[in-house]
Amino acid sequence: MSLLPAARTIAAGEATAAPSRSTVTIPAYADRRRLRATLPGGGVVTYRLPRPAADGIRLMGDWDGDGAQTPGLFTDGRWKLWNRVVRTGSPAVRSTFGQAGDLPLTGDWNGDGVTDIGLVRGSEWILALGPLPTDDSQPVIWQDVTFGSPGAHPVTGDWDGDGADGIGTFSDGTWLLVNSPTDPTGAVTVSYGAAGDAPVTGDWDGDGTDGIGVARGSTWFLSNSALAPRTSTREDRIRAGTDLATTWQVPVAGPDPTCPTARSGTVGNPAWVVPSPVLDRAFTPPRGTLRQVRGSLQQSERYLLGAQYDAKWRSTSTRPYLTLIGGVREDELNIRLPAMSALTVAIGLRTGGADPAHIDATSTTATRYVDQLVRSIACQHRSVSPGGWGDGWETAHWAMLTGAAAWLLWDRLTPATRADVASMVASEADFWVARGVSYWGLPDGTILTPGDTKAESSAWNAAFLSFAGSMMPSAPHAALWRAKAAELAVAAYSVPADDTSSTVVNGVALADRLEGFNAYADGTVENHGRIHPDYASCVQLLWLAADFARLARQRVPAAMFHNGGLVYSAFSTVDYQAGATSPAGGTFAPPGGSVYVRGKQTIYYPQGDDWGRARRAHFVSLDAHALVYSTYLGAHGWPAAAALTQHEKAQRHLWRTSGTDDGRTYSVDPAVASRQDTYPGREEYAAQNLATAWLALYVAHLGIPALDSGILAVPDSTAPAVRPPASAVAGP
For the CA atoms of 261, 267, 269, 270, what is the dihedral angle to 10 degrees? Predict the structure, then answer.
């Protein structure tokens, strides 16, 4: 049995220059596990829904009035309602209303935008207003009326467009409709459909008035008018097994697909975004290492858009939105990996890093690839879709990767996608700007999180907030984002001596700004219980923020380079003695020496590397940035140019010996590849780092921006040092 919710237009929530999103009702199919529908702009989407009991009835409704229509279940008088479609989890509301044998129905009886509930018992209609109580108590009966004939199929809808739903029945092609459940007299009888058809109702054209229709097998006959029915749409749908015809209300904004799980309104405004004015500049690097960096990037692009695309994405290339997220613990891979891929290809497309032999001939495919990934990731952010990802550990980094990919292709995205990306970036930025700074150690020497520096998390949060300000310079909180970015950047690789230092960075003395430290005095960092070069290399995230500032023609805050020279110098100047005791615990492994081995492709990990010893791409990016920003770093030791040459050579050796010519970095043998780099997203991670290495070189070609040494301070910042949220272990 298909009992269908009413559809009505929900006004946009917060003021925004995003495209006006009305809603439209679309035909869909539901089984015991999922909901499938074809969006107005084309393309099928599938979402997993809570399983009903054997005699349970599935419903859809906007139970909390946020503009998103989400699932509900009715079983013998028990109601369970969810306020999200993605990652439904536990129901938001459980309530008792009705009994076994009752037929549940939904509608907006009073026109307040919240879906109400009801029961049909014979010809008695018992209606209650939402939202339902959250304490599991019974809702109050609002109306109890007699209408229709026992055995007829109950339907609801806004037949006259007044914003409130009426009721009706369907029986063997005959409809009995009334505009208001408070006055069931004066019902209108219309004929539409035949015996055996499943009745459906909804606002098929988004005009605010519900029409009627019937589903007959896999064919839908729909009329935009209920009282004067005339078939305006006939749509054949793929129907599987015992799928039931149902309907789903989704947002629409113009002719293009719109995020189907979105709530009303967005927190960001795409009008705040200023696209970079310095993209698509001709840049042919000189022969040698710089050109080889581009060559390695092109190999990764070839893999992402070739072998990996065929294996992972081609089968879904026609879908407007991909269902990426699963459980919260899976977000790090489900969101970050496609975000890294999108940024890699976007950088190549807009900075001269694309390989004409592989990318130019299919630039449309490459752009669609980035667009689909960006659109899907932003759609499933919690600022857009209830229950989505965001506001958690590392999510600022994923938002930066995704937002930057979108920003680089801003002129090629649909208005709806721009609105979702703006919402994602603004929401994440506003969340993190209000969080305290995390420290590994306190000024008195107390170590808050033994074996786990907060350097890399402070770096990615700082980089993201700085990027948000570069992307959205006219956002109301852009100045605050930039100030918080400076605060986090100074803290990211702060050392104990900084806590008492009078050195002024962006207008604030270190002693006044800092409440702890994240690195040893020599610029090394401790993570995963060891001295860990991979996490020291995350200092480059701050320099990536400098790249984005340059693309936005902004000055770079001096804070982005605080202790950067110290950290980079440590790779080639700190000497580890094999067998000596490590301050992180344990001893240093043979043969000893510095992390960077002069004149060689080798990386020495003083206490081993749990991510694999064949990783080189992130050092290519680190070296490229150290070379480009050398004026601001003042690093000493092995010159960045020499290190870049050796590590780029090591990267080329990896893909040349991978056992295939498809462009991948690591071995075609999964067992070998997992020893080279244990991170499941190793190819995407390598590709993204090669892309950001190239981006640094592109920025150098444009000209390095001057430093911003002005005052950047968060007003009344009294946030204490905090222990960050627990999280799964993920790659740097």
Answer: -40
